[in-house]
Design brief:
- By secondary structure, the protein is an alpha/beta fold.
- 36% of the residues lie in helices and 21% in strands.
- The chain has five helices and seven strands.
- The radius of gyration is 14 Å and the shape is globular.
- The two termini are 17 Å apart.
Length: 160
């Protein structure tokens, strides 16, 4: 069975689509939506707050998870009334899924990489909301994106 992939131009577009899906869990990739790869601690903290303020208005959301394969962590994991906020550093996406198993369904993984975020969504049975990559993507993520474009037609179905 192939997982549905949707495309979003940015945070507001991704949040709108997650609301239309009545998602109860949202898993956000950190780089580049929340903070850029070479960003500061301050930009990471600000990005998390920005994402939470955008999705806090979605009535069905119960869990917001920030997930990254890097070791970077926020200064503190903020809280939002009525929403469980989780931050997973060194998440080993898409290999490890145990940390996500108790999250309520339906859910969506919001990120830029098919090879990590998309396959995580597939393994969890979530929708994958793929973000358009920004300009200035580092070499490693560019190579991952190229590999993802090769496997995307085999693993995902485009949303109508």
């Amino acid at each position: 069975m192939r997982t549905i992939v949707e495309h979003a131009a940015g945070l507001a577009d991704a949040a709108r689509r997650a609301g239309e899906l009545s998602a109860r869990t949202l898993i956000f990739d950190i780089e580049p939506l929340v903070a850029y790869w070479n960003g500061t601690q301050e930009t990471l903290d600000e990005g998390i707050a920005r994402v939470l303020s955008e999705v806090a208005e979605l009535p069905t959301v119960e869990v917001v998870c920030f997930s990254t394969n890097s070791a970077r962590r926020p200064s503190a994991v903020p809280s939002t009334a009525g929403v469980q906020v989780v931050y997973l550093a060194s998440a080993a996406k898409p290999l490890r899924t145990t940390a996500y198993q108790r999250f309520p369904r339906p859910g969506a993984v919001i990120g830029d990489q098919v090879a990590t975020d998309g396959i995580l969504a597939r393994r969890l049975g979530y929708t994958f909301i793929q973000l358009d990559p920004p300009a200035g993507v580092p070499v490693g993520p560019r190579l991952m994106a190229a590999a993802g474009r090769l496997v995307q037609p085999l693993l995902f179905t485009e949303a109508d």
